[in-house]
Design brief:
Layout: E1 14-18, E2 26-32, E3 35-44, E4 58-65, H1 77-80, H2 85-99, H3 104-107, E5 111-120, H4 125-146, E6 159-167, E7 170-173, H5 177-180, E8 185-192, E9 197-204, H6 211-236
Helix pairs in contact: 2-4, 4-6
Enzyme class: transferase
Keywords: Nucleotidyltransferase, RNA-binding, rRNA processing, Transferase, tRNA processing, tRNA-binding
Domain Exoribonuclease phosphorolytic: 11-140, 159-223
Length: 237
Amino acid sequence: MRPSGRQPDAMREITVETGITRHAEGSCLIRMGGTHVLCTASLEERVPPWLRNSGLGWVTAEYGMLPRATHSRNRREATAGKQSGRTQEIQRLIGRSLRAGVDRVALGERQITVDCDVIQADGGTRCASITGGWIALRLAVNKLMDAGDVKTDPLTDHIAAVSCGIYGGTPVLDLDYAEDSEAGTDANFVMTGSGGLVEVQGSAEGATFSRDQFNQLLDLAEAGRDVLVAAQKDAVA
């Protein structure tokens, strides 16, 4: 039995509110169970120096966790004067993932920065950030299209992410913190809406896992992806 009482293939409840902030070109608050992430997309009519005069746009991301997003208060990274290695790794993952669904030629020489701020954490914050980040990005691109600033849609596909793991010897979908902290295997799957794999992060925390178990995790992730893409479509409809 999972701590939450869910079936092995059951996702946590997903809710998305859009238009959360006044100033960002795109924004949403995504809730996946007890994990709540505020995602905003900000448009700038410039690109990093290495892309000037290239005709290519850029999508990047930043990630942060509020001090009391977890059971005990975490010190703000700004007060420490640097980001942790975990923060840097996650925000690079978010940026890579979102760019996998972007036609950078169609976007033109402009940059969209997706900020993902974890308000409350209960496992899967990077997956919620990617899934909600795509929604914020979609809303920002919609404004570009409505204004006639881009001729064709720069977003080529949905991008969503979900965690899977082996908990108590059973492959399960969408781990919460209680499961994540005890799982024998933990994996994050970033996928396109059409079924492509963008990135897979997986590791064993004790005993190794088999090819058959990996295939079971992938099957669960694909089912979870379908649920997340449906939630994305509803959010931006």
